[in-house]
Amino acid sequence: MDKLFKVFTSLLLISGLVFYVGCEEDATTAADDEDVVITYDSFDIQAVMSLSAGEDANAEIVRTVPGSDNQAVFVSSAVNRLTVIDYTPTSFAFSADYDLDPNSATAEMTSLDVSPQIGGENYVAVCVAETDCGLGKIMFVELSTGTIVSEVTVGYNPDGTAFTKDGSYLIVACEDDREDRPCKPEDRWGGSVSIIDLTSGVANASLLLDFPVAWDDESEPEHCETSLDGTVIVSIQETSQILIFNVSDVTSDTISSYTVVDLPNDGGTSDDGESVEGEPDGLFISPDGTMALISMERNGTFQMMSLPDGAMYGNPYIMEADLADGWQRDDRSYKKRTEPEECSLVEQDGKLYAVFAMQEAHAVMVYDVTDPANPVYDSIAPAGIAWEEDNGMEKSTIGSEGLGMHPTNGIAFSANEREGSITMFTAQWARE
Which phi-psi region, left, alpha or beta, contains residue 80 (left: φ > 0; alpha: ψ -120 to 50)? Predict the structure, then answer.
């Protein structure tokens, strides 16, 4: 009997030990599962869906909203309208339309940027150009209500704008393009960069400086971007230059220190062997502020630049070489065949990706620029609703011009001006 009892006790102890070890293993496995970190070795862009913003509305520029994971906003230049987008990783919808009154029958809303939260509110800075050759202005609009909070007069034909990352200033690229403005006086060269002071609040916004960019008849600012340390870059399109300065060097009289970088041409790699100037359009600054991405609309290239010194990495990269047969390009000329426009830089798992809206290729293209001197093609996805019909090998009927990319969640939008549509895209980490 004692022997039988000892055997039974031993079996109970063994069973308990097995159960304990099993539970320990399950707990360890569960803990291990919780610690698993998925990494991604590519962007792998995919189009999710597109919506019409109105055939004749000219949906032109789009931005994601700083501090939000589910909102974006775009401007429709032909109808002077702001539209708010609500989105998830799988779809989006237009949640609000703000029809704005610029108080002029000859005004056109050309671009926008969205502020970081200032007093708990995001503000949209809307560029308003006067087609009758008057000075332009910025309208500051409260995103949550569509209320115009203030207006500030700037230079002629504002065409691009960017808040500083702390919301203290707004930079405005005023193009004053002679080609689009035949009434421009012969003795007024170039354009200007306007700096608006927001340190007393958006409602009290005021012009600090309208800095002339007038060293050439065609030195016309197109777009601008800012970094955390106050560095500002401005694309000067017709003369193929980049202007670099810091907001700390801006006074009410001048910019005390700045650099102008002359960009290289494409080296005679176009179809007819001619060297084609870049004519920069889109810009973006890397999250750490050490590099800038520049897209060149005229010769269809892009290049990375060191900041704040302006040194160029590698050579201009020709994007058309990565377009497979059947993708739209404008075959009428060796210039502006793919026309990269707005662009963005986003980091994920130690890699840096460059994302581009391709106006004549009805597409958004992505490159790995972790090595800024040696870009590597990553992926491409079509933009627009009727992109499959856009294959005439002439001017694209989609016209993907604007690009808004969230810095972390893998969601991007293109504003397709000619078709009047918005397309949503995802990186692979947004689909997991």
Answer: left
pLDDT in tens, the chain (432 residues): 444 344 334 444 444 434 444 444 444 444 455 668 899 999 999 999 999 998 789 999 999 999 999 999 999 999 999 999 999 999 999 999 999 999 998 899 999 999 999 999 999 999 999 987 899 999 999 999 999 999 999 999 999 999 999 999 999 999 999 888 888 999 999 999 999 999 999 999 999 999 999 999 999 999 999 999 999 999 999 999 999 999 999 999 999 999 999 999 887 655 555 788 999 999 999 999 999 999 999 999 999 999 999 999 999 999 999 998 888 888 777 678 899 999 999 999 999 999 999 999 999 999 999 999 999 999 999 999 999 998 877 889 999 999 999 999 999 999 999 999 999 999 999 998
- CA distance to 25, 390, 428, per residue, from 45 (Å): 39, 20, 7
Tell me which residue of 396, 422, 426 sits closest to 327, measured CA to CA. 396
Give pTM, 2 decimals: 0.90
- CATH 2.130.10.10 for domain 39-430, yes or no, is yes
Domain ranges (residues) in the chain: 39-430
Tokens describing residue 368: 């790995």
Residue-by-residue DSSP string for 203-233: GG-EEEEEEEE-SSTT--EEEEEE-TTSEEE
Cβ neighbourhood burial of 388 (10 Å; 0-12, 13-18, 19+): exposed
Q: Which amino acid is at 60?
A: E
